[in-house]
Design brief:
The complex is a heterodimer.
Chain A lengths: L11 E10 L6 H10 L2 E8 L5 H11 L4 E6 L5 H14 L4 E4 L10 H10 L5 E6 L6 H18 L11 E4 H6 L9 H11 L4 E6 L5 H5 L4 H18 L1
Parallel strand pairs in A: 1-2, 1-4, 2-3, 5-7
Antiparallel strand pairs in A: 4-6, 5-6
Helix pairs in contact in A: 1-2, 5-7, 5-9
Chain B lengths: L2 H22 L5 H19 L1 H10 L5 H45 L3 H9 L1
Helix pairs in contact in B: 1-2, 2-3, 3-4
Classes of the chains: A alpha/beta, B mainly alpha.
Chain lengths: 239, 122
């Protein structure tokens, strides 16, 4: 296995980091550069951003041509759609492990090794990064707990952090996942797919870096409500 | 005849003409043509002979003919909304897939620096 230190020269060619980016011009440089410096392969999916995200990433690609691939949705299709594009692209490029990583600087790149570890040891097919809810602002903490509860009721899976943006998948899991939701509902959908396909799930504690910027993004109460409505409709459709 | 019967008759006939014209232009399928013709004939029938609706209403155990029409109309509308919802969902999914394929293909067509560097190393 390759050495995991920051200094090694070899690229980690089997670990692909999928970074979905929608209007992330302020943070995307930092996130992608850090990932490149850690020698990971990076797949950036620009999800129809209106700001300078795409040119910024293109510029970064010139700096790290071997590591960065950029895919651009002509129009915004949501987090779920962007993740699926990134995962499909990673598979085509020969990824062995695929990690999803938010572009808003809330994850610590050092956690990637931790979430990949159970996959490498073949103990799990999917690893979810488990954020510490005690570090979260109250509204975030509450909405995330509600989402966990909803995921438990609707899909019958108890997870510590259903809405985490840092996840890792092996090839088997990636090919089995059927992701239909386009928006933030994708996180709960992944949990559903894990159960449906009897994939082995592991949860690894990760660090979360909260900045005013990352707090404004992601799951809040209203997004939570939207996901709930969507889940009910999905179930109604199956009846 | 009371005034609403005339209105029902006129609207029904006009609607049928529109449906037939649309069918001739190829904008409506034959299935939809039959569906709309039958529906509008029923509406014309119900406005010309309002008492017949009561017979059907009694069959379903509903007191008045008008109530039956209202109930059927409501159920029909809900069904239509649901149909539209699933149709839009399907369209959205197809758009997403289209966008995905565009994104994936663009990357492969674009002669990126990655390819050049690979060549240099080879």
């Amino acid at each position: 296995m390759q050495k995991q230190s920051l200094n090694h020269e070899d690229l980690q060619k089997d670990i692909f980091i999928v970074v979905p980016a929608f209007n992330e011009e302020r943070t995307v440089t930092k996130v992608v550069t850090e990932l490149c410096q850690m020698k990971y392969m990076v797949v950036v999916v620009n999800d129809g951003s209106h700001d300078k995200t795409y040119p910024i990433v293109k510029k970064l690609q010139k700096k790290y041509p071997q590591q960065i691939s950029v895919y651009s949705h002509p129009i915004n299709r949501g987090l779920g759609a962007a993740l699926k594009t990134g995962m499909e692209a990673s598979l085509r490029k020969g990824a062995k492990y695929i990690v999803t990583f938010d572009a808003d600087c809330q994850h610590d790149p050092n956690d990637i090794d931790n979430v990949c570890e159970p996959l490498k040891r073949d103990e799990a097919d999917v690893v979810l990064g488990d954020r510490n809810f005690d570090d979260m602002p109250l509204t975030k903490k509450l909405s995330n707990q509600i989402m966990n509860f909803i995921t438990l009721i609707f899909y019958g899976v108890k997870v510590n952090d259903s809405q985490s943006g840092l996840r890792a998948f092996n090839i088997k899991a990636t090919t089995l996942l059927e992701i239909n939701s386009r928006g933030y509902g994708v996180s709960s959908e992944i949990v559903r797919e894990i159960k449906k396909n009897h994939l082995r799930l592991a949860e690894v504690p990760i660090k979360t870096i909260y900045t005013p910027y990352s707090i404004a993004k992601g799951t809040n109460a209203s997004v939570g409500l939207q996901i709930l409505v969507k889940m009910i409709i999905d179930i109604l459709k199956k009846i | 005849m009371i005034i609403y019967q005339y209105i029902g008759l006129i609207i029904g006939i006009l609607a049928m003409i529109i449906v037939i014209l649309r069918f001739r232009e190829g904008k409506t399928s034959s299935g939809m043509l039959i569906f709309w013709i039958v529906l509008w004939l029923l509406i014309i029938g119900a406005s010309l002979f309002p008492d017949t609706t009561s017979i059907f209403a009694n069959l379903f155990g509903i007191g008045r003919g008008l109530d039956l029409i209202l109930i059927l109309g409501l159920i029909g509308s809900f069904y239509l909304i649901f149909k539209l919802y699933t149709m839009i969902e399907k369209l959205e999914m197809e758009i997403t897939e289209l966008v995905r394929q565009i994104a994936l293909n663009q990357e492969t067509n674009e002669p990126s620096e990655e390819d050049n560097t690979d060549k240099e190393y080879n």
